Amino acid sequence: MHRLEQLHAWLADVMPGRTCRLAPASADASFRRYFRVSFDDGAPSRIVMDAPPSHEDCRPWLHVADLFRKAGAHVPDVLAHDTGHGFLLLSDLGSTTYLAALKEEGTPHDPQRAAHLYADALGTLAAIQAASRPGELPEYDRALLLREMMLFPEWYVARHKGVELSAAENAMLQASFERILAANLAEPRVFVHRDFHSRNLMLIDPAAGRGANPGVIDFQDAVYGPITYDLVSLFKDAYIRWDEEFVLDLLVRYWEAARKLGLPVRGDFADFHRDYEWMGVQRHLKVLGIFARLYHRDGKDGYLADMPLVMDYLRRACKRYRDLGPLLKLLDRLEPEEVQAGYTF
């Protein structure tokens, strides 16, 4: 039976006698598909996840959803599930992402509106972090952090740019990775969503009675790892740019609140900010590799337009820290750029 036919048959079993229609609800970089289920009787819509078991395991999604929900995050309610076939029926958090809300009416850089939305997001993030405990989620360990960075030379450098690195450049890259890993692994550890950004945060319509803002989705890859990781996802977002002054103000506000809540942030903001910057370098290397892989392996070209912003984040961080100077030289070879003023620590 065709996959979509299986999905319709399952829905008929879990909602007998109800007539519904399915429409694509969102795009995804994985094999998962999401459909919005609308009913002829005008009942609230639902979301159904189709996660083919040969490619995806929806059990981590269910586990993380339970953890985050108990922490106070607004995640979809699970109304029915069939883990064997990879089907989940979920409450609908709406169709307006933070990204869409922040860019509506042609105003992608409205700091006042953004500050309110990000304050809500930081409140949710702090709640998730405050509920953290070891042993619940996979460790964001050295092996995983390094495996992610290795996507950069494999997919971005070799496949996307068509560049073969010399032995000296390969040695330099590995030495840079070691410095980045040392900084990442020295951070305090908490629950990490891993993609806590504007496309995975939903703007909730209070009139719809759906609950608190923001809704949080796409958390199935959550891990136990560095406390600044989700802040990097949020503020060094691949899909929208904010002025560094605006971001710095929000980071200071988060850091001050985190200290009051007893979260394990550094006692000195400068140390906390350095952790954040070096965590960003790890993430941006990974993201460039993933975007290149999505294009060359999976035929998804929608992420190519987001590469320049990610590269800019990476380049800016490398300019600020002398230990990342050799990596910056490689970036200049891959993506030549006019000399710009920078500062170092």
TrEMBL record:
Among its keywords, does the record have Translocase?
A: no
Domain named Aminoglycoside phosphotransferase: which ranges? 23-254
Matching entries from InterPro entries are given as: Aminoglycoside_PTrfase, Kinase-like_dom_sf
* Keywords tagged on the record: ATP-binding, Nucleotide-binding
Q: Which residues form the signal peptide?
A: none
| PANTHER family in the cross-refs | N-ACETYLMURAMATE_N-ACETYLGLUCOSAMINE KINASE, TRNA THREONYLCARBAMOYLADENOSINE BIOSYNTHESIS PROTEIN TSAE
Kindly provide the name given to this protein in its UniProt entry. Aminoglycoside phosphotransferase family protein
